[in-house]
Amino acid sequence: MTWDEANAYCIKEYLGLAQITYPENNTALVNTPAGVYTGKAWIGLHIDVGWAWLDGRPPTYYSWSPGQPLNTGPGYCVFTNYRGWYSVKCTEMLGFICFDGSDYIVNNTYVTWNEAKISCKNKNSTLAQILDVETFDKVRRVVDKEKEIWIGLSFSPVWFWSETQQISTFMNWKTGQPNNEFHCAAILVGDGTWTTEPCIKQYPFFCYAVYKSKKTVVSMNIQTDVDLENPDNQAALMQQLQATLAKQGVTDFKVTWTKQPVQKSRKKLDGTHTHTHTHTHTHTHRMSFL
Fold it and tell me: 66 with 129, same domain?
């Protein structure tokens, strides 16, 4: 199927094309039985374009100057001065500001946006990402009022997961990828790396679904001389319960417990209190089996 056909099928039958958000997801997908097939298969990653920071995140905070942005589209980047942000061609020659994890450092060398990005990277820093007003205040404190400097915002391709519409933060691209000329992504089943592909290509595909576990809650009164407030004693009891369940053939489960609050009673007789104490501990717990 094409990417769109595969996505529509997965949405209808499951939740959507596979979303790979962690390395463990990628490993699990590669280990999914696929017979002798080791070629490419569609996953739920596709491209869109818009304003994005260097790490791929879209801005949630903007500080455009009045009338900005005048230009949007591939090839446009953002500079700032003391007053606000402006969009211009990324090939303009401007100063730039790097962030090294603790300080904002202005460089007055005039370079293109891409050259500024590389220069910051070579200094173990990044072009500044201004994610909120507090950060912009810090940048403005080190920028001359009339100075124009590149920041790490550009109109860029951004890779999204189809079902969640979240930007992909985990990536496992094959060397030389992504080729942003193509707008859909496939996984190489043989080694787990990703490639960009024309969305009209015909490939097998991976769907995903979320299976809800069954939860059973059991209330138990346990009388014992052992102090169950001790974590070691709790762990030993849990192991015994799990072993007992396993002997009954119940193996695919998870056991958790929560101690129920004990309601204390106070009986007043002629202005005095009576207390009863015993060395046997009684505990009420709610056991959850998943």
Answer: yes
Residues 57 and 114 in one domain: yes
C-alpha to C-alpha distance for 174 and 187, rounded to whole angstroms: 9
Among candidates 68, 151, 63, which has minimal Cα distance to 113? 151
Does residue 42 contact residue 204 with C-beta atoms inside 8 Å?
Answer: yes
> Cα–Cα distance between 290 and 276 in angstroms, integer?
38
Q: What are the C-alpha distances in Å from 116 to residues 83, 149, 173?
A: 21, 10, 25
CA distance 91 to 115: 9
The whole-number mean pLDDT for each consecutive block of 10 residues of the chain, a chain of 290 residues, reads 95 91 89 85 90 82 94 91 94 96 94 96 95 94 89 88 80 88 92 95 90 58 71 76 66 58 50 42 45
Q: Residue 130: give the domain boundaries.
A: 53-155
